[in-house]
Design a protein that fits this description.
Number of helices: 12
Number of strands: 12
Shape: elongated
Structural class: alpha/beta
Order of helices and strands: EEHEEEHHEEHHHEHEHEEEHHHH
Helix content: 25-40%
Strand order of the largest sheet: 2-1-5-4-3
Radius of gyration: 23 Å
Oligomer: single chain
Largest sheet: 5 strands, antiparallel
Distance between the termini: 39 Å
Length: 351
């Protein structure tokens, strides 16, 4: 396919000299729920002077990408506009691609003052898979490999913050638990959150990522429908909502805590210690690239799962071999390892 069939919609929000924030344009249409969500995520509604130029998140199995820009040297039509925020809604996770397209569209709008001028690059990307607007920049969909979006934030940054405790995040994701990440700084939150699925690279699943969530009913309702997730919050009060997570990752404090109801899941054995030490040493080793670290961690994870699969026994109905608690007990493993392996077998669909 040459075009970009993953694009769903675009919309524009403006802030004027009176600090009023107005929804001014959308194409082809935005649902009322998504409209409220974007107004909430858009940093134009805050009183803070600090603007976050680009942010992204997931809601209702769709990704939103918001690019905010100050309007400098405006044309007459924008003489009262101080800032604009353009949002693209899409099916796929590729922040760099959509950030690029947002910039091209916003540049075109600021030069013309006409929102409909943004349709030209938008529709060109959908139909041709590329757009070129001279000084405003160009984009070719084929230049963006989804896997490069997966590795854009280094996992070594996470390991260097949390050290051996990173094993708790690895365990939570491996066992498909619920992880909440907190940072008061949105750009830090996005960088750290998007790196975490690298710990379970064998799944290459970024749909579990919800990097920018507010404590709003409709957002939490969608989130809690998921069996497993990584959810990012900038609101410190999230820490008290222990029903929303098994593991709480406090980036600001460099601390990780386990929710009271999940203590048993996070008991550590020799398997955990070995992997924890590997991650810490690899992150400090200048000869290790981040991609090598991820690859070798993935090999260790696959070895663990493959060895676990060898313990599967045939079912009575002759179907797919399964792992049972009785099988694990026969191995006379210690309770911590037995519990971990059974939880891992469950997460991998081997039970």
């Amino acid at each position: 396919m040459t075009g970009l069939g993953d694009l769903i919609a675009a919309c524009l929000i403006e802030k004027d000299l009176d600090s009023d924030v107005l929804w001014t344009w959308s194409y082809p249409s935005i649902t009322p729920t998504f409209r409220q969500l974007i107004l909430r995520k858009c940093c134009l509604k805050t009183d803070k002077d600090e603007l976050v130029p680009f942010c992204f998140g997931q809601f209702d199995k769709q990704w939103f990408y918001i690019h905010t820009s100050e309007v400098k040297n405006p044309v007459d039509a924008l003489s009262k506009v101080t800032h604009v925020a353009l949002t693209l809604i899409a099916k796929d996770f590729c922040p760099e691609k959509y950030k690029n397209l947002c910039k091209i569209m916003i540049n075109k709008f600021i030069k013309s003052g006409d929102a409909s001028s943004m349709l030209e690059p938008y529709l060109s990307v959908i139909t041709k898979g590329s757009c070129s607007n001279g000084m405003d920049g160009s984009l070719a969909v084929k230049d963006f490999d989804p896997r490069m979006s997966y590795v854009a934030s280094p996992i070594s940054d996470v390991i260097n913050i949390f050290g051996v405790e990173t094993i708790l995040i690895y365990t939570a994701l491996l066992l498909k638990r619920k992880v909440v990440v907190y940072s008061p700084k949105l750009d830090t939150l996005l960088n750290i959150s998007r790196a975490l699925p690298l710990l379970v690279w064998h799944r290459q699943n970024w749909s579990i990522l919800h990097p920018y969530v507010h404590l709003q009913e409709e957002e939490l309702e969608r989130l809690t429908c998921c069996i497993t997730y990584i959810a990012g919050f900038t609101d410190a009060s999230i820490e008290s909502k222990t029903e929303l997570y098994d593991l709480f990752v406090n980036v600001a404090a460099g601390e990780i805590s386990v929710s009271p109801g999940a203590k048993e899941t996070f008991q550590m054995g020799k398997i955990h210690k070995d992997i924890a030490m590997f991650m810490v040493e690899a992150a400090k080793n200048e000869e290790y690239s981040d991609q090598r670290l991820v690859k070798e961690l993935s090999v260790k994870t696959k070895d663990l799962i493959n060895n676990l699969k060898k313990l599967a026994v045939p079912t009575e109905d002759g179907g797919k071999a399964k792992i049972t608690l009785e099988t694990l007990k026969q191995r006379k493993l210690n309770a911590v390892v037995e519990n971990f392996l059974f939880n891992l077998a469950t997460a991998e669909g081997l039970v």
